[in-house]
Amino acid sequence: MKAFIITIGDELLIGQVTDTNSGWIARKLTPLGISIVGKISVSDEAEAITNALDFAQAKADLIIITGGLGPTKDDLTVQVLADYFKTELVFNENAFDNLKKRLHSYEVELSPSHRAQSYLPESAILLDNSLGTAPGMWFEQNEKIFIAIPGVPREMKAILEEGIIPKLLKHIEGSVLYHTFLIAGIPESQLAEKLEGIEEALPVFLTLAYLPQLGNIRLRIGGIHEDKHLLAQAIDSLAGKIRKKLGTYLVSEQDVNFAQAIGKLLVDQGKTLATAESCTGGNVAHLLTLNSGSSAYFKGSVVAYANEVKKATLGVKSETLAKHGAVSKQTAEEMAIGVRKTIGTDYGIATTGIAGPTGGTPEKPVGTIWIAVSSKEKTISKKLQLGNNRLTNIEFTSVLVLNMLRKVFLIQKEP
Amino acid sequence: MKAFIITIGDELLIGQVTDTNSGWIARKLTPLGISIVGKISVSDEAEAITNALDFAQAKADLIIITGGLGPTKDDLTVQVLADYFKTELVFNENAFDNLKKRLHSYEVELSPSHRAQSYLPESAILLDNSLGTAPGMWFEQNEKIFIAIPGVPREMKAILEEGIIPKLLKHIEGSVLYHTFLIAGIPESQLAEKLEGIEEALPVFLTLAYLPQLGNIRLRIGGIHEDKHLLAQAIDSLAGKIRKKLGTYLVSEQDVNFAQAIGKLLVDQGKTLATAESCTGGNVAHLLTLNSGSSAYFKGSVVAYANEVKKATLGVKSETLAKHGAVSKQTAEEMAIGVRKTIGTDYGIATTGIAGPTGGTPEKPVGTIWIAVSSKEKTISKKLQLGNNRLTNIEFTSVLVLNMLRKVFLIQKEP
Question: A156 and A41, same structural domain?
């Protein structure tokens, strides 16, 4: 099945809002064997929307339209769809009842524009919106499926997961399964080389997708087959082979982000962590605390931007800073030890370096960064030589220091 | 002038990469009076690219194509453009010389694929790429302009700013000027009400655009007029009226992010800052340190996720935690005072609250957050009642506590 995504809204065209909806939709649909052949963003104008519908339906079997379903004057999608499918707008009692219930729970008064929002195309199958007032709509015409959903990300996601995907699965012949690996410590090109033999021998009904991010890669096996049991076996067998090749590069086989995976390792061992951050400026703590439940293992951080803080709060020695400088093996290690003791945790991790774009010297150019991990048993450190981009350096270093901690766990697990 | 953006690459369709290029381009072009009428993403396939070109040129005078210009087999844009404009690919000596120079500076060996990259459409005007190996291309046909640029964001941005915008300005009749305000502490709807009279009296050659973000708004005056002097005067006069209406909501009239603006205020006063973060988990420190030069005013942070850290490192009293809890006015204020003293800065700011989605109680539901600012003279605090979304709570609180610091500066400035 081929799909085309249409996003509607002036805010997308003037660059006020970045469209993250279509990427999210793509990541949900491609594992179902639906390939996204294109996406288009147009303004809130009837002609532009109609042109986009014409273009999209010539290329795809499934057309997903997001946005333009709100109650204000510039939201034209409902009327345009009614015209496009030559159907009438009729007052939908069900939609209106749902709307009233929802408004009541929000303690919002009913207004005439809400009533107007319940006039919907007669040929639409409604998709309940559990998080908002505008329902989704499903149309079938000329053996093609058209779906219209609100552009508000959380409403779009809820309707897609609760209403659309179960309905789409009925249109897909066979079962769909997938399996995901979170991988770190190996570049994408090297990973592809490692898996070359496996990829060449891949059964036609399975796919292997690489989803690289800064410092880690998500590898996804996807498959569609009429025999669900056989499909599950094939995926299991392939996953087993990949797992063997991955060795210690494998971080997790659950659907978690990298910091969550590290957190889970800490929880499993009943251990706690603190971070001492100079060049990452709090980003490691931020990544960890973005995850709900992180207080179980993350106790705190000292962002030691100034040398005075490295000394006073983390206990880095004045002689160390004078002799080796703030960006050095010795300082990184003393920071990691210091934060572990100050905050009172099992592990301490540290970053110190020149994030750039200025501040480099011939001996320590921009991108020179030291990372360290300390436990009661020992303290290790490593030098990184990254590039000139400040944001990349901060984000990459944050992942690399968490991966260094993971490697320490792996070594400890060895007999 | 109407523009259409075409982005090329499978990675955009499968949701592996979020397209931030087209938003960036839109934000650069709309102030020049160029309206973006649509954007489309297609895969690396000749037919898909050709279809997109047909569709785009029917709607716009300027077509900007990004991506597909690299050296690998799946990069088809050059060949497709040559076919589309019925021009030959010819070896371009200039492009090859530039490429060689660039590779030399990267210490990369010349390969046959690099030579192949220098065969370019004969009718193209080349746009120098100061940051990469693939040049941009400019075509004029049937009174329309087609521009092809690499999809790598930093290369795309460099070519657009250095090569394309100066050339486009020659095609735009009249002068283009704009002026931007960074505003915080007022919701968009209230700001729009405040400026209603001004908007109604806006001269036809000026526009006013609202670009809202979490906790702050960018307001941009843009204008096009053949008489540059008159345009500058009109913008100055309008800016003056708006400035008066904004009062203390005005943060900056420079092109800076919110944390940078706060940093600038600190630099101007020769003051330093430290942060004590519980619910924001290091995000305030992260926002500050994303900006190069922040070490001049930002000295460090204590991310006190655990109560033990609040006590041991920040000096929050055990009785305070026992009597009022970690999420309270008293704890927030003691954290702000504590971090100011521990790190030894002029100002300390603090956040403590329930970021969610779990952890709420009937008395302190999710989204209950206290923020505080402390200086040698005094310590103030404020309760926030935000929503259930963890990420939104973290990001919104970070901006609000920085804005609270800004208000303290304003009060101090008063006679």
Answer: yes
CB pairs under 8 A between A and B: 228
Mean pLDDT of chain B: 91
Q: How far is CA A218 from CA A49, A191, A258, B74, B275, in A?
A: 35, 11, 10, 22, 34
- Which residues, in sequence order, are bridge partners of residue A55? none
| Strand ranges of the sheet holding B35-42, from the earlier edge strand across to the other edge | A125-127, A136-141, A144-149, A62-66, A2-8, A35-42, B35-42, B2-8, B62-66, B144-149, B136-141, B125-127
User: From A17, which residue of chain B is nearest by alpha-carbon distance?
Assistant: B23
User: Residues for chain B: how many in total?
Assistant: 415
* A150 and A14 within one domain: yes
Tokens of A98: 């749902």
- Residue carrying structure tokens 């009296």: B201
Q: Are B34 and B168 in contact (CB under 8 A)?
A: yes
What count of Cα atoms within 13 Å lies in the side-chain half-sphere of residue A5? 32
Residue after which a domain boundary falls, among B229, B252, B275: B252
One domain, residues B262 and B408: yes
For residues B12 and B153, state if they share a domain: yes
Across the interface, of A281, A312, A358, the residue whose CB is closest to B285 is A281
Which residue's entry shows tokens 């526009």?
A: B207
- A190-214 core/surface letters (b: 16 or more CB in 10 A; e: else): ebeebbeeeeeeeeebbbebebbee
If pLDDT is split at 50, 70 and 90, which confidence band does A415 have?
low
Q: Is the separation of the CB atoms in B310 and B353 below 8 Å? A: no
pLDDT, tens digit, for every residue of A50-63?
A: 999 999 999 999 99
CB contact under 8 A, A15 and B38: no
- Residue B288: both structure tokens together: 């500050």
In this predicted model, what pLDDT tens digit does every residue of B269-313 receive, in sequence order? 999 999 999 999 999 999 999 999 999 999 999 999 999 999 999
Which of B171, B206, B232 is the last residue in one of the domains? B171
Of A38, A48, A283, the CB nearest to B48: A38
Cis geometry, peptide bond prior to residue A135 (ω within 30 degrees of 0): no
Distance separating alpha carbons of residues B396 and B215, to the nearest angstrom: 6
Is the domain of B128 the same as that of B209?
no
Residues A352 and A280 in one domain: yes
Give the separation between CA B344 and CA A310, rounded to whole angstroms: 12
Residues B260/B262/B266/B272 CA torsion (nearest 10 deg): -90
Residue A312, domain CATH: 3.90.950.20
Determine whether the interchain pair B277/A277 forms a contact, defined as Cβ–Cβ distance below 8 Å.
no
User: Considering CB atoms only, which of B281, B306, B308 is closest to A285?
Assistant: B281
Min Cα–Cα distance to chain B from A384, Å: 19
Q: Are A191 and A410 in contact (CB under 8 A)?
A: no
| Cα–Cα distance list, A25 to A19, A81, A157, A164, B338 (Å) | 11, 21, 8, 11, 46
Upper half-sphere CA count for residue A46 (Cβ side, 13 Å): 9
Q: Do A308 and B390 touch (CB under 8 A)?
A: no
Report yes or no: A44 and A74 within 8 Å, Cβ to Cβ. Answer: yes
Query: Do both A277 and A405 map to the same domain?
Result: yes
Could you tell me if A130 and A97 lie in one domain?
A: yes
CA atoms within 13 A on the CB side of B45: 10
Please give the model's pTM, rounded to 2 decimal places: 0.82
Task: Measure Cα distances from A265 to A260, A271, A347, A372, B15 in Å.
Answer: 9, 9, 12, 18, 28
Contacts of A390 in chain B (CB under 8 A): 290, 292
SS3 B366: coil
User: Three-class SS string for B230-291?
Assistant: HHHHHHHHHHHHHHHHHHHHEEECCCCCHHHHHHHHHHHHCCCEEEEECCCCCHHHHHHHCC
The helix (H) or strand (E) run that includes residue A357 is none
pLDDT tens figures, B185-196: 998 888 988 998
Count of structural domains within chain B: 3
Range of the domain at A159: 2-171
